[in-house]
Amino acid sequence: xxxxxxxxxxxxxxxxxxxxxxxxxxxxxxxxxxxxxxxxxxxxxxxxxxxxxxxxxxxxxxxxxxxxxxxxxxxxxxxxxxxxxxxxxxxxxxxxxxxxxxxxxxxxxxxxxxxxxxxxxxxxxxxxxxxxxxxxxxxxxxxxxxxxxxxxxxxxxxxxxxxxxxxxxxxxxxxxxxxxxxxxxxxxxxxxxxxxxxxxxxxxxxxxxxxxxxxxxxxxxxxxxxxxxxxxxxxxxxxxxxxxxxxxxxxxxxxxxxxxxxxxxxxxxxxxxxxxxxxxxxxxxxxxxxxxxxxxxxxxxxxxxxxxxxxxxxxxxxxxxxxxxxxxxxxxxxxxxxxxxxxxxxxxxxxxxxxxxxxxxxxxxxxxxxxxxxxxxxxxxxxxxxxxxxxxxxxxxxxxxxxxxxx
Amino acid sequence: xxxxxxxxxxxxxxxxxxxxxxxxxxxxxxxxxxxxxxxxxxxxxxxxxxxxxxxxxxxxxxxxxxxxxxxxxxxxxxxxxxxxxxxxxxxxxxxxxxxxxxxxxxxxxxxxxxxxxxxxxxxxxxxxxxxxxxxxxxxxxxxxxxxxxxxxxxxxxxxxxxxxxxxxxxxxxxxxxxxxxxxxxxxxxxxxxxxxxxxxxxxxxxxxxxxxxxxx
Lengths: 407, 216
Description:
The structure holds 2 protein chains of 2 kinds. Chain A is an alpha/beta fold. Chain A has 2 domains: 276 residues, Rossmann fold; 100 residues, Orthogonal Bundle (Rna Polymerase Sigma Factor, Chain: A). In chain A, 32% of the residues lie in helices and 14% in strands. Chain A contains 11 helices and 12 strands. In chain A, the strands form 3 sheets. An 8-stranded mixed beta sheet of chain A has the order 1-4-8-5-9-10-11-12, sandwiched between helices. A two-stranded antiparallel sheet of chain A has the order 2-3. The longest helix of chain A has 17 residues. Chain A starts with 21 loop residues before the first strand and ends with a helix. Chain B is of the alpha/beta class. In chain B, 32% of the residues lie in helices and 22% in strands. A 7-stranded mixed beta sheet of chain B has the order 3-2-1-4-5-7-6, sandwiched between helices. In chain B, helix 4 links the parallel strand 2 and strand 3. The radius of gyration of chain B is 16 Å and the shape is globular.
């Protein structure tokens, strides 16, 4: 491996029209008004579904993906060939049990896996949106999802669940559409993006924009890809998803395929090699402008600010508690969305006497823990979802012990 | 906060449906079926589970220990991890019909303030506590000359979380001082049996007391 990142100059263009999954055009008759004031429409939402919607249409679960996620939550990823990003949580016998629930996951607005975003063609010009794409917010993403549910004929979700930026969408759902959400599971998230997190995002965006191949955002038209910038953005962000103890446990100061340091700038250390790999493989499946737009959406998220500066007001429903049951989960070693952020949400929910559970899971895996094999996380959510299903009249999954018992 | 003697005696550990420690059953009997209940220091959820399933309450819990919280949420109970002494302040007045504090008041840093919070958040509060005036405790101190270690108070002085032990009489005085009304009293003697003795003897023969409280 050389000192600079060996990225393929032109690779990574994804033909989203050929991707598996469903696509629907929304906002054709009435465009969707975005928070920035722009009217967007028509626009496309790409989504996947798993399981079967019951006759009462009461068993739908919406999974909200994180910054660089997509709707391939429980199936092989069409670009990387890897398993779905949350197959540990979503699937037959999993906590979000596709044998019982109808699971929907949509690529967010601004994304690059089929939903309208800066890499898609603007129907008005026939050219890629690029930086002419309007700046979108978490609220806009959720409004687009609500339109998708209207299209699917689903009035109320049994549950909306997501981690990180997915958790922001869950909170936005509970605040904006409380009557459409029976249970909400925001994981490893916050009601507002912190200054530190905005700062990290800015580093990533500057890395992309500093790449000459970014071409002021017009790289698609010029046949270029700012792979180096996007890879560096991913490398910096990836560090924030881990924890110092986890990095140390995994790599320590171990050298990469060599006995001694080279007195140069090759990837001497395993941790460097690992990060480079993370950066290089990321650019194959993600669009740089999408990265700019979606990080911006997270930066702008501040649920309290939308409600007079008082977070509790975001959840107050007709002067009383919201009709939503909440279960928040944080991870002890997550310094990107630390437990204090979840606790602030819990305090706000208590202030409106909401029905809320909150667990901090002990782990050294950092922010990424929500995606990983954390038995405690899965056990807690299994119990919470089970209890909610009973209250919703969806019965208990008796006679089933879960994936461990079934295999 | 876990019901603090449980760690030693093993009492209150997850029990089968219906089976519940006698003092917890008496606490539960003070709670109106179908009401909204907050169990402060709900431990592993034994009482909360009983209240939700046997008395059909809309139940919530606060618990300090993560182990307790995980056990509760995993069985479908609505429980948050938190420090009751800090977190009770978040709740609006009269958020609950009943706020339960079982065997935990004596472990609070500021029991007086907690007591006031209970009757502010709840229209009623149910408080149970071990009685330091119980005759066996008195005898232990009188004859042994050492801090009592009993079944109910199962810790040595240097490790006990029970930092604010009181007698039943002390507790009644505090309630009177801060304007908390006692609507019902159940005194448990040996083997957790309710006593039927003259109330004047409660402070001597009661191993623990259970009180239904409200604001004056």
